[in-house]
Amino acid sequence: MELGYVVAGLVVGFIVGLTGVGGGSLMTPILLWFGINPATAVGTDLLYAAVTKAGGVLVHHRQRHVDWRLVGWLAAGSVPASMATLFFLSTAHLASHQQDSLIKSMLGVALILTSVAILFKPWLLKRVPGRFRNASFESLRPLIVLTGVMLGVLVTLSSIGAGALGTLALFVLLPALPTTRLVGTEIAHAVPLTLVAGLGHAHLGNLDIPLLVNLLVGSLPGIWLGSKLTHKMAEGLLRPALAVMLVVVGAKLVV
């Protein structure tokens, strides 16, 4: 067992439990800092996310916080998009350094977008187009599927975006739905997306199983502890600090 990876899983799990964001946004850059190959870091983090969020789905489902119809339409866009992205990676015959460069660039973009979503979410929600407020679910289906497509590509190439970006998109499109139901739906959608993308990366050889086990050993108790302390710490200060850190790391990766 590698103590450094266990500690990394513990820290990330604690932050996720405390703030609700930061899983892939923190884990993949940390793995790069440890010297893990970018493709392996993304592939391992995707399966890490699928396992850790699966437990959350059970809790939200029991509390009736999941709109499975919405999950289905999001997945109708994201899962095929993820499979198409994986097909591109497997057939494009990219050199190792080219694939690493592509993944690092997408990771940087995803980090910057995530930080913007965290920082400016209240401002963005106040400016939701009025036509979305009264739109029927049926009229929004094409936009929901398109949202899934964009998340599928971004998550498959970077392991980031299903959380903060997915939730923000749902808030904008469906402002009438309760917050708990939107969050539960986003988590439920993230499981099949990260599972398909993670298994695809594993098929491409982008998976380190011992690393995955070490991360889970640390993160599961970390998530539990963070969830217990979420009302006792200054979450309002932690989220902006996390956003600033993500935009700095993302800019470094892009440049």
TrEMBL record:
Alphabetical list of Pfam families matching this protein: TauE
Keywords: Cell membrane, Membrane, Transmembrane, Transmembrane helix
Transmembrane regions listed in the UniProt entry: 6-34, 70-90, 102-124, 144-174
Record-linked InterPro entries: TM_pro_TauE-like, TSUP/Inactive_protease-like
Family as reported in the entry's similarity comment: Belongs to the 4-toluene sulfonate uptake permease (TSUP) (TC 2.A.102) family.
Superkingdom: Bacteria
Localization terms from the record: Cell membrane; Membrane
Chief place where the protein resides: membrane
Membrane topology summary: Multi-pass membrane protein
Protein known as: Probable membrane transporter protein
The keyword Membrane is assigned to this record: yes
